[in-house]
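Collaborator request log, item 7. Partner lab (contact: R.S.) asked for a structural prediction of Putative transposase to inform their binding assays.
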Amino acid sequence: MAPERAAAEIQTRSIDEMTGVQAPERAAPTLPMRRGRAERGEFEDIRHGTLTLIASFDVATHRHLIMDLNIHVS
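Returned to partner:
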């Protein structure tokens, strides 16, 4: 259906939104494996806020149209 609509110069877009995406950072480095011990990672992290990602593309041509990135720091 999208190719027929594209031939008639009508765009068919697919839009996806991801809100509240977090980008945490580890508070301490991961300790490497040692003889008899598995790798150990810190469970505490530092939060840098969230972001909202909105992407859109043309279904017929598979071309990327819009990408919006909003960062929210609280």
